[in-house]
Amino acid sequence: MIGWVPKVLVGFLDQIAGENIRRIILEDAGLDPEATEFRLDRDVPDPACRKVIEAACARLGVTEAQAFTLFAPYFLAAARAAFPGFFRNVAGTRAFLLSQPAIHNCLAAGLRDPQRRAIADKFRVEATPGGVRVFYNSPNRLAALYVAVAHELAKSYGETVEIGFEAGDPESEKCTMSVELAPVAATTPEPAAIVA
Ligand code: HEM
């Protein structure tokens, strides 16, 4: 996979746990913290990213679902800061989610096959009347991260999102997610709260 996700993950661990714990987590994952540098333009084996996530959850005592809920805002903020162009003129969550596989493919353009093809195979998205349907297929088993980032993205557009699994589950290598979007309901003030 592209080294960007592990790179962002390492930045997140530095922020929430500090550099020392992050080094220990990389060691737990079987990596040499001094020799490990994740980069956007470098391929990282999928299992290495998985191992870092598992080591981080074990060391910090959180479930993956909890970890992704914490990580998603950081992930999205990092994407916005590094690639503002992908966010420009995007009308809402649905439009963004429809372009997400193309964003990944665009970032993979510098890699060679078979890595580039493996990235293209991870996500396929189709439009549905109320949102999108996502076909996920990756040994990283990160559909739960997709769910967390989609919620965060929807929040940024003032929308709410409901995600169901039509096939597989959040920990599957292969699953199909149905993503339904709705604008956040405008809150009507209670009559008693209206001051003349
Ligand atoms: C500008 C926005 C985004 C950028 C720059 C970005 C970048 C990336 C990159 C570089 C990867 C590694 C792909 C690979 O090599 O396999 C990745 C993976 C991933 N992204 Fe994105 N992404 C963006 C938006 C999103 C959104 C909106 C979602 C979810 C709603 C998302 C969910 C994921 C997930 C779940 C993975 C892990 C895939 C796997 O390895 O199984 N991304 N992203």
Give an overview in words.
The protein is of the alpha+beta class. The chain has one domain: H-NOX domain (Alpha-Beta Complex), CATH 3.90.1520.10. It contains seven helices and four strands; from the N terminus they run ααααααββαββ. It has helices at 4-17, 19-28, 46-60, 64-82, 93-107, 115-120, 143-156, and strands spanning 123-128, 131-137, 159-167, 174-183. α1 (4-17) runs parallel beside α3 (46-60). The longest helix is centred in the middle third of the chain and has 19 residues, at 64-82. The termini are far apart. The mean pLDDT is 92. The site of protoporphyrin IX containing FE (HEM) has 23 residues, from α1, α5 and α7.
Shape: globular
Tally of DSSP β-strands: 4
CATH architecture: Alpha-Beta Complex
The N- to C-terminal Cα distance equals 60 Å
**Briefly, what CATH class?**
Alpha Beta
State Rg. Answer: 18 Å
The helix/strand series, from N terminus to C terminus, equals HHHHHHEEHEE
Task: For the largest sheet, list the strands in their spatial order.
Answer: 1-2-4-3
Detail the topology: elements first, then pairings:
Elements: H1 4-17, H2 19-28, H3 46-60, H4 64-82, H5 93-107, H6 115-120, E1 123-128, E2 131-137, H7 143-156, E3 159-167, E4 174-183
Antiparallel strand pairs: 1-2, 2-4, 3-4
Bound molecules: protoporphyrin IX containing FE.
